[in-house]
Amino acid sequence: MSVQPDQETLEGNEELDWTRLLDEYDYARPQRGELREGLVMQIEDSGILVSIGTKREGVIPAQDLRQMGEEFLNGLKVGDTIQVYVQEPENRDGDLILSLTMVQVAKDWEYAEQLFKDGGITRCKVIGFNKGGLLVQFNRIRGFVPASQVAQLHGRTAAEERQHALQKMVNQEIPLKVIEVDRERNRLVLSERSATQEWRKAQKHRLLTELQPGDVLTGRVNQLTNFGAFIDLGGADGLAHISELSWQRVNHPREVLQPGQEVKVVVVEIDRERERIGLSIRQLQANPWETIDQRYALGQLVSGPVTNVTPFGAFVQVEEAVEGLIHASELDADPQIQPRDVLQPGQTVTARVISLDRQRQRMGLSLRRVNEGEGRLSSGEAAPSAPETAAEAPAESAG
Q1: How many whole angstroms separate alpha carbon 178 and alpha carbon 188?
Q2: CA distance 79 to 19
Q3: Contact 108, 183 (CB under 8 A)
Q4: Class of residue 309 by CB neighbours under 10 A (exposed 0-12, middle 13-18, buried 19+)
Q5: Which of 108, 159, 341, 344 could form an S-S bond across to 139 if both were Cys, CB 3.0 to 4.6 Å?
Q6: Is 94 left (phi over 0), alpha (psi -120 to 50) or beta?
Q7: How far apart, in whole angstroms, are the C-alpha atoms of residue 70 and residue 216?
Q8: Secondary structure (3-state) at 344
Q9: Over the range 288-306, which residues count as b (16 or more CB within 10 Å of their CB) and which as e?
Q10: Nearest 5°: phi and psi at 51?
C-alpha cells in the first residue's frame, strides 16, 4: 500500500528544488583574483553593474573606471561583453566588487610567469633605486632588480660608487630577465645581468655568422690590456692587437685609447671555431710611409725626440708614426761609444737621413754626418757605413 505525500511535503520539496536550482545557477562562485567574462547591465556615475553569471550583479566602482581613461569609458555601452577581475567576492555591504584595471595587472602577472617559464627577455624602464638595487616598471607591475643582478656592478664595487651608478640608470630602459615571480606576495624580481649575458651570446653568434674581413664597424673600447684593446661591437668583443692600434709606436694601448671611447674599426680576421674577431684601427688611418718619399730625401736633416735607446742604436721620432734609427756606428767617430752614453729617451736631436726604404718602412739616420754636405747623399748614392741590418731591426722599429 503506497503512501501519498501531503501538501506540506510537496511544498517543502519544491522549495528544496528551487534552492538547488539557484545553487546550480551559481555553481561557479566567484573567487578573488579570477578573470571573468561579464555583460554590462547598467552604466551610472557611481559605477557600472556587470553580470558575470552569478545570483547578483557585480559593481565596477567609479574610481577604478577613471583609471581606464575617457576614451575607453566613452566607448562602453550597455550590452557590451567585457573581461573583469574579481576584486572582492563580497564586501561588508554584500556587494560583489569587480575591476577593469586589475584585468591588465593580472595579465601582466601571467606575462611575467610566461617569461619566467620560457626564459624570455623583456625591456623595462628604471623608475627608481634604493640601497638594494633598481625599481623598474613592468607594464602595470613594479619589479625589482637587485644590485647583484645589475650588469655594470660587481661585488667589489664600493657602496658610494654603486649608489651613483644606480642613480645614473634612472629613466633608462634596460633588458631584463624574470628570475622570480610570487604573485601572492606581489614580488617580481628581474636580472639585467642574465638578460645581458643571453643577449650578448645571441649577438655574438649573429656577428660571427654575418661579419666578413673588410667590414668597417663602430665599436666602443671595453678593456685595455698589455697586448691590445678589446672593443665591444654591440654584443661581442673583438681584439685590436697593439700593433693594429696606430702607425706610430705604441708601448701600451692606453697611450692612444681609453675605456668607453668610440672608435671605428675594420675586421681583419674571423675565427668562428674559436669565436674570435680580429680588428684593426690603424688600417683605417693614412699610412705615413706610403708618401714618405714626398717629404724626405737622402741627405736631408731632420729633428725629433729620442724614443728608445738600445745596444745597437737609438730611435728618433721624425714625425707622428715615423721613426728613424741611428745605428751605433752613426753616433760618433769613436766605435767604442755606446748609444746610452750619447743619447737618452726624450732628448731632441738633429740627424741626417742616410737611407730610406718606403716598402719596408725603414729610415736610417746619422749623427756623425750632420756636418757633412748634402751633395753626395742627395744625388742618390748609397750611404757609406750605414748597415742595412741596423735599419731593419724588426723588434725595435716603429714601422
Answers
A1: 8
A2: 28
A3: no
A4: buried
A5: 108
A6: left
A7: 51
A8: coil
A9: bbeebeeebebbbebebeb
A10: -95, 125
Enumerate the β-bridge partners of residue 128.
135
Query: What is the residue extent of each domain of the chain?
Result: 35-99, 105-197, 211-284, 288-391
Q: What is the DSSP letter of 355?
A: E
Q: What are phi and psi of 388, to 5 degrees?
A: -60, -35
| Cell triple for 384 | 757609406
Classify residue 43 as exposed, middle or buried by CB count within 10 Å of its CB (0-12, 13-18, 19+): middle
In whole angstroms, what is the distance from residue 90 CA to residue 137 CA?
A: 31
Domain 105-197: CATH class, spelled out: mainly beta
Reported as a single tens digit per residue, the pLDDT across 61-102 is 988 888 887 888 888 889 999 889 898 888 888 889 998 888
Nearest-CA neighbor of 117 among 201, 174, 178?
Answer: 178
Q: What is the pTM of this model?
A: 0.53
Amino acid in position 383:
A
- 326 forms beta bridges with 314, 365
> Is 263:256 a contact under the CB 8 Å cutoff?
no
The CATH class of the 211-284 domain is mainly beta
Burial class of residue 283 (count of CB atoms within 10 Å of its CB; 0-12, 13-18, 19+): middle
CA–CA dist 297, 315 (Å, integer)? 18
**CATH of the domain spanning 35-99:** 2.40.50.140
What are the tens digits of pLDDT across the range 114-170?
999 999 999 999 999 998 999 999 998 999 999 999 988 877 777 888 899 999 999
Which fold, 288-391? OB fold (Dihydrolipoamide Acetyltransferase, E2P) (2.40.50)
Phi, psi of 124 (to 5 degrees): -135, 155
Q: Residue type at 96?
A: L
